[in-house]
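Re: beginner question about structure tokens

> Can someone show what the tokenized structure looks like for a real chain? I only ever see the sequence side.

Sure, here's an example I had lying around. Input first:
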Amino acid sequence: MTTDSTSTATIPTADAAGTWQLGDRTVNRIGLGAMRLGGMPWEAPRSRDDALAVLRRAIELGVNHIDTAAFYFTPTRSSNELISTALQPYPDHLVITTKVGPSQSRDGEFEPMGRPDQLRSQVEENIRQLGLEQLDVVNLRWGTTMEKTEGSLADHLEALVELRDAGLLRNIGISNITADQLTEAMTITPVVSVQNRYGLTDRADDTLLELCREHDIAFVPFFAVATSTWASPEGPDDTGESEIATIAEAHGATPAQVRLAWTLQRGAHVLAIPGTGNPAHLEQNVAAGGLRLTADEVAVLDRIASARR
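And the corresponding structure tokens:
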């Protein structure tokens, strides 16, 4: 817990939800996603000062897991540059994870999936932008859309294994994949994390979450909250809005905090990386790690998801 310098209120910190071993590093289960730091393509640019404040405040609140990518940029902002500016010299306990595979042109369009021989330049780009000697975790992000793409990951993962052996990265994860692709990946290299789209009303990957649990692999949902707000290009998802609001009111919380708490209660191996460029929203997201839903409340929330399928 920490005390805000402007009040006597005690604000929950990122260790409230416990920790997980992400490869050879220990992280608090509430982290920060960097994609929204500078704004999204369909939004007005966010304040640079706010973005830097969010990053510094995240560290103050005990966040030690930040997820980013070199392709997280808009015409006026780069998430990696903001992280580097705000946080160097980096705290020893901070784990920065990034992604390779996709890339974005300067006009904001995603380019074809990177070939295995292009991954080294993508890894080096992240290293250069972040001012690091080595990346803690590199996730192979499969495909360039929100839809999963079938196919073997072997050639790309073998390229990352070579880069790990060369000392450019410590741990390997995968993103936007199927259960079969995870099974294949585990025959090639230890996998420390799976990042897939998942949330209260977006539960196509329930089986994959369980497979990760069986193998002690971190399951790291993205868009766990965004589908309920205008943070998603698809617009808000108001499924179960009234039930979520009732539970939120009972806890003196926001609906977004309830969604995050539900996600974290899916398993000790589930990590949260909610993104924001707003310092107040950051504190709310971190505080969600201390929100404990009752069994009856979880049952209500589970029925919402079941009704949507």
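Each token stands for a local structural state, so reading them left to right follows the chain. The longest strand covers residues 135-141.
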